[in-house]
Amino acid sequence: MPVLVVLRSLFVTVVVGCAGDAVRLRSGDGVDHVVDTQDIVAHSPVVKNLLAELGASVEFVPLPNVNSTELQAVIPFVTRFEVHDIELAVEWTETRVRSMDFQSVCRLLSAADYLDMRLLSIAVASRRRSWIDIPAMHDLLPRHAFRFAMGVARLTQVAQNEYRKAIAQMCRTSLVLGIDATPVNDAGWTFDGSVLHWAARKDEEFLVELLLYLPGIDVNALDFLEKTPLHWAATYGHVGVVRLLVDAHGIAVNARDDNGWTPLHAAAADGHADVVSVLMHVAGIEADATLGDGTRTPLTMAVEGQHVEVVHVLVSGDTAGVDVNAVVGVDESGIRMTALHYASGSGFDDIVRILLSANGTDVNARDGERTTSLHWAATLGHANVARLLIDAGADVNAPDQDGNTGLHRAASTGYANVVELFLQVAVVAVNARNNDGKTALHLAAAAGHDDVLELLADDSRTAINARDRQGNTALHLAASAGHDDAVKALLRASATEVTARTMCSWTALHCAALHGHVDVAALLLDAQGDIDADDKATALDLAWQGGHVNIVMMLHAAAEARPHKRQH
Questions:
Q1: In whole angstroms, what is the distance from residue 123 CA to residue 142 CA?
Q2: pTM for this entry
Q3: Rounded CA separation 119/399 (Å)
Q4: By CB distance 3.0 to 4.6 Å, which of 87, 263, 435, 478 could disulfide with 403?
């Protein structure tokens, strides 16, 4: 017979011969053992298939990977127990295995694995073991046998109370008899979930793999937070468990918990790049999924948490990839922006670099308020990020919805380092006007940023006396706000028109008088010199209306010290 010829040629001569209801099994070391046919066939699908292939008249059945010593243990086991005698078999085997040395136990497990005798495998593996046994078992057992045995051993070890022992028994019954695991799904291992939830959360990789063998195991079962086992494995970064679960039949990789989080959200938010990589390679993964309220994708969560490696995985070309330009809500405030906006506004240099290197990134993308990433970097003073964006082609003169450019925003918030960066760009529109007609100089003056004013005033392109829609110069705005250092900075510029007038014909002195800024008024009086009667009267009136007696007195004193020229 061809099968026997091949086996003999490979020195694998284990054959089973049939005599009535008995069959002869020949071990790998050439020893024959007779066993009842029905007993061995009931326990071993491998022997059953060999008998079907070789025919009923065959002299013996070859079992090349099972030695005589192991067959001597197998035969009394199959003779003594029916396949459904699971707990009795476990108890009996525990006693027998206790007297065997470690290597003999491993050889018996290997034989059970080769013969596909699941009851024997479970019975032998159910014995409690110390952790020092594991490395040795790993070296002595085939990979599948080792992982199965470890799963069974962990199931036995963690079933520490009667309730869990009952669940473990249900698992063993399902594994051996192939019956549906619905009772296991319905039984709460803890108050908040099933045994599969618990195993996934605790990184019990061997146990998870064992549970996935159960017919009908619910891989998408929901706990009290509506989380699946995959949610928990992803949350805690258990990449081995995640790999097992995503390969499970029917896995809902995009399942949402009670907060609308998918497993990818969970892994990205907690910075588990290896888990994110596994999930991103799963067919059908929703890489751009938002939460139930339409906010926060896995990418924006990774950016928010400064998880550089996760961002790299999400936008790299070797995975399904994400829409790097997606405009989504980043929190409950309603602000909508891209990941690049968020990273730029937060000053995350490394993440900005990664996002800019991603295929298709729009460096000039607008958020929900028509703001660019450069606007955010400028507003919040992130000069390094602003430089990265400019080098990547960001439009330095792009206006936001209020007409403010990046230079406007940096000047308004007082970030001199960013203003200096903008001034180094040849094409920057130094005198660009926003919707109120204000330049960056106006905004810096109004906010009192004297260091920014000095930078702008020293730039030959700056229109120092530019007027906004109300006719205010930067000096008017600085005087109105009482920023004496800003006023000093502007007065140091030789081109500053101290007596420039607004549309109401007010000078900067009038503005200072109205608002009661004594020090500013003194600076302006000193810079302006003589003032005409009308200007004096107007300034006095404004100071008096505001109740600023000190300014009234100062103006009178100035008038006495500096008599006006007689008009002809």
A1: 18
A2: 0.86
A3: 74
A4: 435
